[in-house]
Design a protein that fits this description.
- The complex is a heterodimer.
- By secondary structure, chain A is mainly β.
- Chain A has strands at 3-5, 10-14, 19-21, 24-26, 31-38, 44-50, 56-58, 64-68, 73-78, 87-95, 102-103, 107-112.
- Chain A has a single domain, classed as Sandwich (Immunoglobulin-like), CATH 2.60.40.10.
- Chain A has no helices and 12 strands.
- In chain A, strands 2, 5, 6, 10, 11 and 12 form a 6-stranded mixed sheet that branches. In chain A, strands 3-9-8-7 form a 4-stranded antiparallel sheet, with no helix packed on it. A two-stranded antiparallel sheet of chain A has the order 1-4.
- Chain B has strands at residues 4-7, 10-13, 19-25, 31-37, 43-49, 56-57, 65-67, 73-78, 87-94, 103-104, 108-112.
- Chain B is globular, with a radius of gyration of 13 Å.
- The model of chain B has no long low-confidence stretch (mean pLDDT 94).
- Classes of the chains: A mainly beta, B mainly beta.
- At the A-B interface, strand 5 and strand 6 of A face strand 4 and strand 5 of B.
Chain lengths: 113, 113
Amino acid sequence: AQSVTQLDSQVPVFEEAPVELRCNYSSSVSVYLFWYVQYPNQGLQLLLKYLSGSTLVKSINGFEAEFNKSQTSFHLRKPSVHISDTAEYFCAVSKMVASKIIFGSGTRLSIRP
Amino acid sequence: NAGVTQTPKFRVLKTGQSMTLLCAQDMNHEYMYWYRQDPGMGLRLIHYSVGEGTTAKGEVPDGYNVSRLKKQNFLLGLESAAPSQTSVYFCASKKDASTDTQYFGPGTRLTVL
């Protein structure tokens, strides 16, 4: 079975500062990895995903995540955050060609001006 | 193209009352899901469906029933609501087994008194 651990429930940062949201997973098989974002009072949206190939994946709004198989991690980073990045971020894992994905408990990113 | 829609957006029930949450998608997706979101627990899968006429249990199915009579609709029923079912409920869909991205509805906030 797969599981996902998000080590930080809340991460406060100042605007324009860098941020890293941590995610570790466990699985006995090869997996797909995802970051979803939930803006206030909305549903979840896919931010980025790792399926295969390059271990560094990027989103259109400046986030990136690196798949590290040896450390079983998929941390999310952004070099300079904006107020509009305020949201809850969920890491998720699934087996390849699976019907279900497993979500982490979420990390609430709050940006201070 | 509305994507995934959920009805209603908000609801307050008394303990023991019943209700049905409706999820509809217009993307011709095969797979549909019902999750509940509770603080600090991420999203937990209640039930899911891999096609019209099929349903399966997820991680927390007790107290809920589902039906998928039409491909575009996935109904979640609470026969006798309990305060422990106070939560935000999200529906999601994905195209088929070979695809990886789930698309989420805006959520239904349910309070059981």
